[in-house]
Write a structure and sequence with these properties.
Layout lengths: L1 H17 L3 E11 L2 E12 L6 H8 L18 E5 L13 E6 L5 E6 L10 E7 L5 E6 L5 E7 L5 E8 L2 E8 L2
Antiparallel strand pairs: 1-2, 1-10, 3-4, 4-5, 5-6, 6-7, 7-8, 8-9, 9-10
Amino acid sequence: MRPFLIAILTFTLLSSSAQTGKKKIFKQTDYMNGNLYSKVFDTIKVSDERLDVYFLKRHFYSPYYLPEKFIDKQYKNQKVSIWHDPTKKKDYRHNWENTYTYDSLSRVTNFTYSGCLICSNFPYNYTVTYNYNGQVEKISNSTNMKETFKFYYNSNGDIVRFEKFSSDKLETRIALVN
C-alpha cells in the first residue's frame, strides 16, 4: 500500500508542477497576393521563455534560417567563414560555407550560406538591422524570394508582432493576443 501511495503522490506533484507555465495566445494571419487567406489562433505554453526571434523559429518555423546567436563577443568588426567539412576542399559544389559579418558591437549584421545543390539547399544572404535597444528589428534576404522579416517589441523586450514579406507583399503576420 505504501509504494502505491508514494507513486500516486509523486505523479500528482509532477503533474501539478508541469502545469504552472503561462499560456500565450497568438493570432497568425496569412495573406496570398496581399489578400487575407486564413487566420489561426494558437495557444502556446511558455514558462519563463522570452518571446524573441528564436521563440518564433521554434514555434512558428519562421524565420527558418538564423545564426546560432546574434551577438558573439569574440568577434568585432570581423567576417567569419565556417565550412561544413573543414577537412575537405573548400569547394561550393561538394562542400558549403556559412559566413557571418559582425559590427563594432559584436552583432551579426549579415549571414550567408553558399548553398548545396546536391542536397537541394539554395544559397541565402540575410542582412540584419537592429533597433535603438539592440534588438533585431528586420532581417532581409536579398537572394531567392526577397524575404523580409520585421519584428515589433513591447517595453519588456518581448516580440508582440512579427511580419513576413515576400517580394514586398505581406505574407504572414503573427501577433501576441495576451
